Amino acid sequence: MINIEIDGKLVETAKGSTIMDAAHKADVYIPHFCYHKKLSIAANCRMCLVEVEKAPKPLPACATPAAEGMKVHTHSDMAVKAQKGIMEFLLINHPLDCPICDQGGECQLQDLAVGYGGGASRYNEEKRVIHPKEIGELISTHEMSRCIQCTRCVRFGQEIAGIMELGMANRSEHAEIMSFVNSSVDSELSGNMIDLCPVGALTSKPFRYKARSWELSRRKSVSSHDGLGSNLAVHVKDNKVVRVVPVENDAINECWISDKDRFSYEALNSAERLTRPMIKQGGNWIEVEWVAALEYVANGLRQITQSAGAENIAALATPHATFEELYLLQKLMRGIGSGNVDFRLRQSDFSADGKQSGTPWLGMPVSEINGCDRFLIAGSFLRKDHPLLAQRIRQAVKHGAQVSIVHSAADDLLMPVANQAIVTPAELVSTLAQVLKALASTKQVKLSDEIQALLVSLTVSDAAAKIAASLAGGKQVAVLLGNFAQQHPQAVQIASFAEQIAQLCGAKFGFLGEAANSVGGYLAEAVPFAGSVHGMNAAEVLENPRKAYLLLNVEPELDMHNPQLAMKAMKDADMVVCMSAFKHQGLEYADVMLPIAPFTETSGTFINTAGIAQSFKGAVKPLAEARPAWKVLRVLGNLLNVTGFDYDSSEAVRDEALKGITISDKLGNLTSGVKFEVVTSSPAALQRVTDVPIYFSDALVRRADSLQKTNDSAVPCVKLNNSELQKLGLQAGDAIKVTQGNASAQLTVQADEGVPAGAVRIAAGHPATALLGAMFGTITVERA
Amino acid sequence: MLSTHIQDQINRELKKYPLDQKQSAVMSALRFVQDEKGWISTEDMSEIASYLGMPQMAVYEVATFYHMYNLKPMGKSTLTVCTNLSCTLCGAEDTVAYLTAKLGIGFGEVTADGKYGMREGECMGACKDAPLMTINNKRLCGKLTPEKIDQILAELDKS
Fold first, then answer.
1. Which of A165, A168, A183 lies nearest to residue B61, judging by beta carbons?
2. What was the ipTM of the complex prediction?
């Protein structure tokens, strides 16, 4: 440790740290623009110049290492003169028209100019003008003339997002931030550049000129999208959400959020919002009062219970619903005598139900990811499914960690990948088994007889051997299973082998939670094998069609593992109740549409993939007649005479659900009593590899206009590698017909060498592919 | 595609740097492209980027930072005239005026037949021979007079 003195305050700081770090410790503010704690040091804005005794000139605090006995003055004549001078230079080319700038009121340059600048400018000559460039739908560069060239955005791209999409072209007076030949910025974390920009050069395109910062009230919330549970500040004007920005939480999202978290708010004000309860009568939708709609639902459920039994009713909820909603839904169902309740809509292998030691979770706190030195990530579209977890792994890789991938698609993760085995979905289990075999022989560990017998005949591929070698060399290993692995028809086998691998290398073993309440759903007992009444899971209620379905924000054709089967079940059902924030295809098959509030309009809790429960309040009042789903379910409970439905707040629901429960005790990734199986033969037909594109993954993001215009939202193509294309006599760009079950879709074919031979990649979650069947399985591809 | 000649040259250059720092060769790679084609297009930059495994924008940054890379066609022979202090004191303006009168082009322009392009240059570090110009950044010509310029252009016409 080093002792230095800043403005007379003695402070102890670590060796190798800078004056800026020490100043933070001493609680002394040093003005700065280019410095950012999560980015590398550039020292190019010079705003942080301070006086250091015995140094002949002012030194940049962000780039000067603290030395023993150093005496720093941040307000001395020399420092003040330097700061004033720098501010004058920075303002030479910066337009002085804050009142018309979108950043006005929340601009670091504006604030620091007031604090450290002169009252007037001596510069009367012409200012530099930069012509705006188009860089996509999310970030506006319209005011690039305001840029002070701090290069935070460039460093963010290089260091955090992993892809350098913006750069500083040209030199000196002509230097400007731009993308390569006006290409769009496609990073799934790009919106953070808007926050990082200390001036108004990069602004949010959807928010531009919608409000001034001082008109906004800021309300804390939690992201409803991926399993991370990023902390959000929802900015509200006139009871309308106009912007979402991150709230710093180092244990979860640090100071970042993904573009999905940031821009999906646009859907909240979409014209597709369902605003009044509706009942279908004689084929026509009529708007009714809440009382009438709820009576109708209660009567319907009562009749079906009496005539066919409660087990003929099923409830499906999205894992994006709040913990309270999931809890009340299952309580309602069990209250009327049915255990058919599930939230694992895209899962297909339920054979571990009841055999798990607890709720599947990340297996470690989120921040521990940064400290791991070896990763095995199986079955994950990591970057698109978990943008910020991918970012943490990227940071770990930067510090020397090795990442090994076992997956059915070789997407660019924007980080160096040490080893990868890209195999068809049918080969995933055997590939993991090969890694296990290689690992056991490297570590000279004897596996159980059951597994040993399975592995004997298995030939270890080169890739699997390399992965095993990499894992064996690690001190802190993490084995993580992505959404694809969890949705796989042999998910339990995948998990079992991955668990064995993890055990052999003393690794943390975890599941990357697909959605905001992937952990919360289990804890709320919104699963058919928990609670007092057991029932059918999300797949079974479709295979054995029920008479009535209660859908909590579910769009079956987009959210389910097998949309074809789901739609058939919905169409054949006697009664379908859609609780939804949006008008959707349910209008075709539902009988009642109940407008419920999205996460910004209700209070609730999300329990993230690491088991952290985060409660939030509603940021705005529910739109029109929409109501929080927990209130709707409470009234339904009352109408159906289910006992214990007298809650007066969502907090009361949460407290009841979590009474006497320590969440950490409920988490567990081990499965027992599963028989290991390795199938080595692959089907002859093409196997479907399905991703859920980042901006089609849930109801909210599907309706966010700006996100829908990005390249990630293009209509899905059928992706095949070149050898398969040749076999089929197809060329990239051809229109083709894909058939699965009794439905087919017309799509365009695209060459993608990342798809393994024998597989074809087709996205789910998009209307163009919604008619197709299960996310896995065989599929036919032919010329249209 | 980068020609095999350029690729060979880049490969030779790459031997000078550690394997994981291929981008160190970017300036040479840009030079090789310009030597062969006379200028560097954005397509060339993309190809260099993928050849060296670096972001396209990083190549673009380098190409636009340095003055001697031509980002548009600049004729078969690019004449770069120094206009810094020493050369200006020794008559660089006359050199420019003479070239403009003779070739009909100003700075940043190319003759209609595509033979000559003219650029404004910075100090070439040979002020004792001012005024100066370079031909294709390779050949330095000093103590320029109208006669000497005529002679140089005649030579270039022949080649």
1. A168
2. 0.91
